[in-house]
Amino acid sequence: RAKVVKNKVAPPFRSAEFDIMFGYGISKEGNLIDLGVEWGLVKKAGAFFSYGDIRLGQGRESAKQYLSQNPELAQEIEQQIRASATTTHITVPDD
Question: In what residue span(s) does the RecA family profile domain sit (predicted)?
Answer without folding.
Answer: 1-31
